[in-house]
Fold this protein.
Amino acid sequence: MRAAPVLTAAEMRACEARAMASGAVSGRALMERAGRGAAEAIAARAGAARIAVILCGPGNNGGDGYVIARHLREAGWEVHVCAMGDPARLPPDAAANHAAWSAMGPVHPYTAEVIAGLDLPEDAPVVLVDALFGIGQRAPLYAVVAPARDWIAARAPRPFVAAVDLPTGYDADTGAALADTPMPCDLAVTFHARKPVHAMGALGAAEIAVVDIGLSS
């Protein structure tokens, strides 16, 4: 049996770039496939939860988060979106999906105060979706992780935490921690192939789900 492929962040970007350059698929279509597949994977593992808090970053990982938000809302979920950065500076595909979500619901700023003040039913199970940085993270991310990590620790029952590609606070290629305590993770939904951080077991007991987005190897 052939081993499942493992791609570095650069190899994954090159694979996507080849597909787009060939004219076989657009970046917007790839983002839609990724977000839809991630939403399905999350919903299938969420148990009784039908409330999602989705954290969207300033790049294409955040764009995936907006697609996830839209598909979960269309499936009947209560969805709250908190975002980092200026939406005017989002990459084009992420900006398009920010706009699509904004037609359905608000985008709150990602701060400790905002997350703590979200109007969520007490004692209800909640899914937190970490779509902040994905495979693009490199710099130390201590301040980025803290608001969500503290909210997760304080809420009961503890939220189910799903990461888009990988949790915030890890390097995709080395598994090195980029935060004093990286974001918790119960499920990492990645696309096309596992990344080194998944293959080396750096995420502990987190389940790794690979979503097919129609790319060739």
Q: What stands out?
A: The chain has one domain: 9-211.
